[in-house]
Amino acid sequence: MRTREKLLDFFEKNKGAYFSGEELAARLSVSRTAVWKAVNSLRKDGYEIDAVPNKGYCLSADTDILSSQGVEKYLEPVCASIEMEILPAVGSTNDYLREKALKGQKEGFTVLAGEQTGGRGRTGRSFYSPADTGIYMSLLLRPENCSPAVAVKFTTMAAVAACRAIEKVSQKKAQIKWVNDVYIEDKKVCGILTEGAVSLEKGSLEYVILGVGINVYPPRGGFPRELEETAGAVFQEKKSDGKNRLAAGFLNAFMELYRGKTEQDHAREYRDRSLVLGKDIQVLLPEGSRKAKAVDIDQDCRLEVEYEDGSREKLAAGEIRILI
């Protein structure tokens, strides 16, 4: 580990505390010059490091920059298999991770980025991913003997996990718009895109890439006009370690669901968090749209709808719009 990474790891574990250059050099087994260079390198990347005569250096408690050191300090034992890579920017975290998956990367590898220049949502639509305001991450899964037909459960688990993480860090109520969007106060703050590959020989999933984008803060200058009525953010102003806590909170909650809890428990919570039940909706189908009422969500997280003619259908995937 380079001096810069060693210093950041130490600062993250002792945020808000001052240490002299001499003490830091001794703790890291490097020279004071190496410490000074590492401090300057971190400052160039935006880290707020105070330097006070006779007190030393201190990583400001207000700092909120996504880093592996910052995320790892909040991870729980259930995330022992998680290995992370942090990128300042990337075209798409899902595309980047797919290349890793094709080369045999192990389950649990997670890529996080501060910006996506080609982020995608469902049906190929772009996902707005500006720099410095959000968390854009993809997690690699290799489930055993898993049929593609039940792959939607990873999306619904991720939605529940995102809600738990957001509520724990922000104390704001988070709800789910079927099937893959998370909302706070009627504004979308998180989107999920699940992709994967199927083994033709086995007829089961070879790997799953779980992509999650969270709007942590509003972008400078606000959201683009086409999003300003529907998009929101978890926080309106900077919070200490907001990004790292949210990223770790999601991984903790998702891995707990993935490794342990029964699907019935997960499905029940998914239903309880629904913001569409009882509402009039528009179901978007390949052959056109139909008006319906959202009636129920079953244990497989399928949305049961009742159309205007009285017929009912359970939707395993698709897209809906809430009618006002």
From TrEMBL:
It holds the Pfam family BPL_C. Biotin binds at residues 92-94, 116, 120-122, 188. GO terms for cellular component: cytoplasm. Its EC number is 6.3.4.15. Residues 73-262 form the BPL/LPL catalytic domain. Keywords: ATP-binding, Biotin, DNA-binding, Ligase, Nucleotide-binding, Repressor, Transcription, Transcription regulation. Residues 21-40 bind DNA. One of its GO terms (molecular function) is ATP binding. It catalyses: biotin + L-lysyl-[protein] + ATP = N(6)-biotinyl-L-lysyl-[protein] + AMP + diphosphate + H(+). This is Bifunctional ligase/repressor BirA. The gene is birA.
